[in-house]
Amino acid sequence: MGGMQMQMLARGYLTYDLTGSPALLGIVSAGFALPMLLLALFGGAFADRLERRRIIQWGQLGAALIALFVAVSITTGVVEWYYLLAASMMQGAVFAFMMPARQTVIPQLVGRDLLTNAMALNAMAMSGMTLIAPTIAGFLYNAINPDGVYYVVTGMCVGAMVLTGFLPRMEGSTGTGRAGVLNDIKAGLGYIRRTPLVQALLIIGLTSTVLAMPFRFLMPIFIVDIYELGPEAMGLMVSGIGVGALGGSLFIAALGNWFRGRVLILSSFISGIALMLVALLPFYLVAVGLMVLMGLGDAGRRSLNQSLLMEVSDEEYRGRVMSIFMLNFALIPLGVLPAGLAAQFLGGQLAVGILAGLLIVLTAVILLTQRSLRNLR
Fold first, then answer.
1. Is residue 366 a contact partner of residue 282, using CB atoms and an 8 Å limit?
2. Could you give the CA distance from residue 3 to residue 6 in angstroms, rounded to a whole number?
3. Calpha distance 79→213 (Å, rounded)
4. Rounded to whole angstroms, how far apart are CA atoms 177 and 327?
5. Comparing C-alpha atoms, which of 185, 219, 214, 221 is closest to residue 328?
6. In the chain, what is the straight-line distance between the N-terminal and C-terminal CA atoms, in Å?
7. Which residues are within 8 A (CB) of 120 and not within 5 positions of it... i.e. 6 or more apart?
8. Cα gap 244→123, rounded to integer Å
9. Nearest-angstrom CA–CA distance, 362 and 82
10. For residue 18, what pLDDT is reported?
């Protein structure tokens, strides 16, 4: 995760250095989304069919080779922005296959009783990397140039692959042939369709991401146009989200099996209310405090959503269920586009207020209609 975060920052800076175009920067940054949307279901099917540790290692090797390709192209002076777009798309493909396997090994490693704790600690580690890795990448970008950052990322991916080799073997179910994979995908979608609790968990996870995450991309509008401050002010707001996410992950890790369904719904309400208050109260210091609330809501949704999905899903379908949940990462750019258009024509505050209202209403509907989720411990 540290390597991914460093690479995202370096790729963004380098793209803008090469092109000076915000549009191309957005295209390159969102390049991973299409492969994720197209291949995520295949990644889930493979996670349920093949040995998961090997899938993770092949994914880590793929990430290392992609980073090395970009590093060498920079060093040799041949890099172009479309090289970075191709790397972004290849990363999306690798992510689509690696992440379902990576998430579904956790219950195999720790067992059902410790799953929520383990998922929270996993989310905490990811939140920590989100805070630390971009700062390190920014320093290295200036100190050893962008190709140096990519060489470091290559080494980190190789190191992750070596460490993953120390995990025990964790088999999925077996199957052969292309038709078998397609049938597995069909069976997985059928399982989700006839399992209401899994549907409810996927709906709250996917829709809350589409409605809550775009604010991070609209944040510069608030910093510049509403608060009339500079980029350092945005850094403090982003850090506030990270602090809240870390604290929320620790809380979830200590929660145990105490009405986790209700805590998940509450987390979605917290995110919606925090967004609504940001839209209504145009004061920077208030917004910084509300970012901590945003982080708390994010941590609750991310940790609990994943752990509950894996608990209530049958083992044979777990990878395919998680591949749908992993579409979160691909749906973020799709949520940002209409949010950006709304901000362009309606203003940032009204756009964020609409997103917040939709999130609150959706969460209220889930609270009122999903009794099995409310009572889930």
1. no
2. 5
3. 31
4. 25
5. 214
6. 30
7. 249, 250, 251, 252, 253, 255, 299, 303, 307
8. 12
9. 39
10. 85
- Candidates 310, 56, 49, 47; CA nearest to 167 is 56
Summary mean pLDDT of the chain: 82
Which among 6, 55, 91, 85 is positioned nearest to 329, based on CA atoms?
A: 91
Instruction: Quickly list DSSP for 191-207.
Output: HHHT-HHHHHHHHHHHH
Block residue for tokens 């540790």: 53
- Residues 346, 326: Cα–Cα separation, whole Å: 31
Question: What would the DSSP string read from start to end of 25-86?
Answer: HHHHHTTTHHHHHHHHHHHHHHHHHS-HHHHHHHHHHHHHHHHHHHHHHHHTT---HHHHHH
**Residues 84/28, Cβ–Cβ less than 8 Å:** yes
Mean pLDDT of the 197-225 span: 80
Structural domains of the chain ordered from first start: 2-374 (1.20.1250.20)
Residues in the chain, total: 377
In angstroms, the CA 147 to CA 315 distance is 42
Q: What are phi and psi of 5, to 5 degrees?
A: -65, -40
Confidence of residue 177 (pLDDT cuts 50, 70, 90): very low
pLDDT tens, residue by residue, 23-67: 677 678 778 888 888 888 888 888 888 888 999 999 999 999 999
Determine the Cα–Cα distance for residues 16 and 24; give it in Å rounded to an integer: 8
CA dist., res. 279 & res. 356, Å (int): 8
Q: Please tell me what DSSP assigns to residue 305.
A: H
- Cα–Cα distance, 104 to 264 (Å, whole number): 20
